[in-house]
Amino acid sequence: MHCPAFSITITFEVKLTNQELIREFEPIFYPKSIAVVGISQNIFKVGSLWLKAILDAGFRGAIYPIHPRGGEFLGLKVYTSIKEVPEIVDYVIVSIPREAVPELLDDCAHKVKAIHFFTAGFGEAGDITGRKLEEELIRKARQGGFRIIGPNCIGTYSPEVRVPYGPSGRIGKVGSVGFISQSGGIGEKLVELGVARGINYSKGISFGNGIDLDSADFMEYMAADPRVSVIGAYLEGAKNGHRLFATMKDASKLKPLIVWKAGRTDVGAAAAASHTGSLAASARIWSAALRQSGAIEVWDVEELTDTLLIFQQLGRLEAKGNGTGIAVVGGLADGGGGISVSASDACAELGLNIPTLSSETRRKLTNLLGRVGSILRNPVDVSQSGSNRSVIKEATGLVLADPSIDIVIVQIDAGILLKYFPWELVESIFTAFIELRAEREKPIVIVSPPGIDETRRIDMEQQLARASIPVFPTMKRAAKAILNLSRYSRFLKEG
Amino acid sequence: MHCPAFSITITFEVKLTNQELIREFEPIFYPKSIAVVGISQNIFKVGSLWLKAILDAGFRGAIYPIHPRGGEFLGLKVYTSIKEVPEIVDYVIVSIPREAVPELLDDCAHKVKAIHFFTAGFGEAGDITGRKLEEELIRKARQGGFRIIGPNCIGTYSPEVRVPYGPSGRIGKVGSVGFISQSGGIGEKLVELGVARGINYSKGISFGNGIDLDSADFMEYMAADPRVSVIGAYLEGAKNGHRLFATMKDASKLKPLIVWKAGRTDVGAAAAASHTGSLAASARIWSAALRQSGAIEVWDVEELTDTLLIFQQLGRLEAKGNGTGIAVVGGLADGGGGISVSASDACAELGLNIPTLSSETRRKLTNLLGRVGSILRNPVDVSQSGSNRSVIKEATGLVLADPSIDIVIVQIDAGILLKYFPWELVESIFTAFIELRAEREKPIVIVSPPGIDETRRIDMEQQLARASIPVFPTMKRAAKAILNLSRYSRFLKEG
Fold first, then answer.
1. I need a surface site. Which of A402, B144, B458, B487 has the fewest CB within 10 A?
2. Are A378 and B293 in contact (CB under 8 A)?
3. Which of B372, B375, B381 lies closest to A121 in CB terms?
4. pLDDT of residue A17 exceeding 50
5. What is the least distance, in Å, from the CA of B298 to any CA of chain A?
6. Burial, B2: exposed, middle or buried (Cβ in 10 Å; 0-12, 13-18, 19+)?
7. In what order do the strands lie in the sheet with A471-472?
8. For strand B72-73 and strand B174-181, is the pairing parallel, antiparallel, or unpaired?
9. Share of residues in chain A with pLDDT > 90 (%)
10. What percent of chain A has pLDDT above 70?
11. Do B262 and A449 touch (CB under 8 A)?
12. Residues of chain B whose pLDDT is less than 70?
């Protein structure tokens, strides 16, 4: 089997210190200048869109559009070649056809620090031309002293310095989450869901075929980067599995590393080969290796974002006693019984600990809510509160105060509440949890299922996110995110 | 162990014919008159709200508010007692305190056909008074010649005759889905999600403690009812497991029966005992019995509604050849590679068959989409279409025409598309699938993940629902719903 990409790993056999790593990746994540190759006067071409997105995002460094005809575009001077640019360029974005790439690389030698190829049609295309081009890219990068991101990817997302993720130009708030994605599309979804759900990124990267810089490189960097507190990765395969797993092991000791390995099945692996040219090893081998490395394996984009969200919002959960004690509060409108039963199932089926509340807590809850029709052991059904805000807040406070409880999950169904009450009252119930989160040390997780009247519910989700309350659409997803959070605590304790 | 409810099963040992069953349940699902006991001049009391909801919904039968003080309320004459009403009442809704119930029942003897108790505080309360009251209820029902629904439930939902589900009064479109829910709250969520996702009910019932009419009774009726094409059930336990399983076996032969058994875990079962007084048997026994009976077991409210939706929209899927051939189409905006890989995983991990498309189909797709950067075996990544509506429609049509394909799943991410294109173009891509669904015999399933710009996406989901296209928020949920659909086909074939 022909395996042209193996040679690149040699470059990294000398391990860099953290400071060297951070310097090495500075042109990629904190570029002072960006060149865009592949613009045209047609604004709907991808290169033009990309340039406009960078401008619109408010990138503060130098921007150099490149086109052989020169002239002016979007108010910027267009350079006829990279060679003409009056300084060393940190980051180059390329979307020209693959045939034109080798000549471009000659121009880039000793003139740029990193080149990102949106251009596809290399190793993943499966033809000889594509494979040969990849080899040529690597050779020219080594000779010309620059690094390659891709090809076949969207490259860098760096909200802090206003580098948008791709030509669509979305920029969210600056936070401490880092993502590494072999797929540009999945990266795009991560950025979008970040904006929608309040996951705030420090930086992200999509690296496609990863012929030079690969998952392990970015992981090593993000592990060293103090601005990143949790790393999420979408991987289809690895050029050098041994190195990747060693890197995951080191990274997991420093911060939580959440890995979604796709291409797990035969069909998925065949698709992965056409997508990023990845060879996908057996799913079982991956799962075992991930477990050993301390990385947290997730299974789809929902679980990846759920887990990033809970780590961002709740940090590292320090489990007490025999493990994490979860309490479930439901029934904020009438009829919390079924919710309580099914919520208990969702948590218990994942092995989460739902301790019976202390007799003191139960006595106080009985005084507050009355006996009949209420489930008060844990789960706690507060439907006897008659949706009274202060009773709900007090009951949840009592549960939070129970010594066996570390996290309280509140299921609050806006769609059901809005059938009985005006929005102002529903909103005031939601904000009771924001107050509790601020007043108490223990975390609150909210399950807010979709239904009708979505606009208000979604606005509220953003408010909760800002108050460090993670919100999930289903009890099962909340439970799984909490399980992932507590797994990392256990890993740190027990190794 | 004291088991007061066993006696009721005797009543049903004489099996009714379908016609007798339909007549027996007519007062419950197609009442000609409804009495509401427990109203007051305070409109915010539950009885008053319930009365108002029935009026607002446009129930066309007679409505009799009952209150000892008489007078008038909401423009209706208030009767001081059921006895005073000038006719036999089909359906009585009761929300008075439990202590007042025995006297009410004396008034109802030979005067009403069915009584529904919203009132709680019976067997589920766990006290002697509650249990004794339940026994008294049963005795008086037998003597008085009426049936009991509940206690501790929301009762009937019957959109055809404008009986709303509970005091919140939501009524959706009339369809052919039936639901049976031990929990009122879960029933409420089913109705709400029905409106939101286009699941149209023929009827529904929540029966709480089920001391007289129980899950098996309603199941038997809905199996016999020609207006119901698929039945969904939320169960916490069964008073008579033997009879329930026999009923499920008979029902499954006639129409798909989707069962969510909650209270599966110890914690869930403890909550179920407090909720509806159910004794939950081991989860494994339930799963085995459900499988044997031909019922389709689901695990949460999401899977229950997903499965009801796909049965409603696609009917009974007749699997051809070696099973159901699924094709996945993705990449409607740029970057469909990661989606294709993960979509394949989601389907293949559930054991769905994703056959490689025929060489003819692949040749035609290659001509249409070009070679480079596209995944065309199945999954099919149409990102090379440049989001051109007619190319996307033609490509999907080619996939639908492939002889090994029975269902096509299209992943279309409105949030991503809207970053690049105006809504009009995104909408036109969605409607291409509505056209294809009308033009072709094969079903299309759409995965439309949430993100930002939810309002438009949700409107579109409703449009798709009206065109018999089921929509799911994640690939995994779509794949699971298809699996459940194909399981029923296999059960009908192989028994």
1. B144
2. no
3. B372
4. yes
5. 12
6. exposed
7. A380-381, A326-330, A407-411, A444-447, A471-472
8. unpaired
9. 65
10. 93
11. no
12. 1-14, 278-281, 316-323, 334-336, 371-374
Per the structure block, which two tokens stand in for B88? 């036999």
Computed over every residue of chain A, the mean pLDDT equals 89
DSSP-derived 3-state class of residue B39: coil
Which token pair is A228?
A: 């990143």
Task: Assess whether pLDDT exceeds 50 at residue A319.
Answer: no
Nearest partner of B300 among B268, B269, B271, B260, judged by Cα: B260
- Min Cα–Cα distance to chain A from B255, Å: 25
Q: What angle do CA B304, B310, B314 make, to 5 degrees?
A: 155
> A52 to chain B: which residues are within 8 Å by CB?
none
| A300 with B342: Cβ contact below 8 A | yes
Q: Coil, helix or strand for A176?
A: strand
Is the CB of B452 less than 8 angstroms away from the CB of A192?
Answer: yes
From the list A74, A66, A139, the residue with the least C-alpha distance to A96 is A66
CA atoms within 13 A on the CB side of B485: 31
Torsion of the alpha carbons at A104, A107, A110 and A114, rounded to the nearest 10: -30
Which of B121, B186, B476 faces A300 most closely, judged by CB atoms? B476
Q: Is A284 exposed, middle or buried (0-12, 13-18, 19+ CB in 10 A)?
A: exposed
**A142 reaches B (C-beta below 8 A):** no
Rounded mean pLDDT, A203-229: 96
B14 and A CB contact within 8 Å: no
Alpha carbon distance, N-terminus to C-terminus of chain B: 37
Report yes or no: A196 at the B interface, CB cutoff 8 Å: yes
Residues of A in contact with B267 (CB under 8 A): 344-345, 347-348, 354, 378-379
Task: Name the token pair of A353.
Answer: 């600990």
Nearest CA-CA partner of B113 in B87, B81, B91, B141: B91
Which chain B positions have a beta carbon within 8 Å of A171's beta carbon?
Answer: none
Mark yes or no for CB contact B371/A125 under 8 Å.
yes
Model confidence band, residue A148 (pLDDT cutoffs 50, 70, 90)? very high
Q: Is A450 an 8 Å CB contact of chain B?
A: yes
Q: Which residue has the higher pLDDT, A278 or B124?
A: B124
Q: For position A326, what pLDDT does the model report?
A: 94
Could you report the per-residue pLDDT of A154-172, keeping only the tens digit for each? 999 999 999 999 988 878 9
- Laid out side by side, the sheet with B33-37 consists of B62-66, B33-37, B89-94, B112-117, B147-149
A contact residues 208-267, partner B, Cβ 8 Å cutoff: 234, 236, 260, 262-267
Query: Is A216 a residue whose pLDDT tops 90?
Result: yes
Residue in A235, A218, A213, A244 with CA at minimum distance from that of residue A283: A235
Cβ–Cβ below 8 Å for A338 and B262: yes
Q: For residue A252, how many other CB atoms are within 10 A of its CB?
A: 23
Task: Tell me the HSE value of A495 on the side-chain side, using a 13 A CA sphere.
Answer: 1
* Option in B127, B265, B376 nearest A349 (CB): B265
Mean pLDDT over A75-88 rounds to 96
Mutate which of A190, A342, A409, A411 to test chain B, going by most B C-beta atoms within 10 A? A342
Chain B, nearest residue to A345 by Cα: B268
Beta-strand pair B155-157/B174-181? unpaired
Average pLDDT on A316-323 reads 50
- Which of B480, B277, B214 is CA-nearest to residue A341? B277
Confidence of residue A2 (pLDDT cuts 50, 70, 90): very low
Chain B nearest-CA distance from A339, in A, is 7
Which chain B residues in 56-95 lie under 8 Å from chain A, judged by CB atoms? none
Tokens of A113: 């620090």
Who among A120, A185, A188 is closest to B373 (CB)? A120
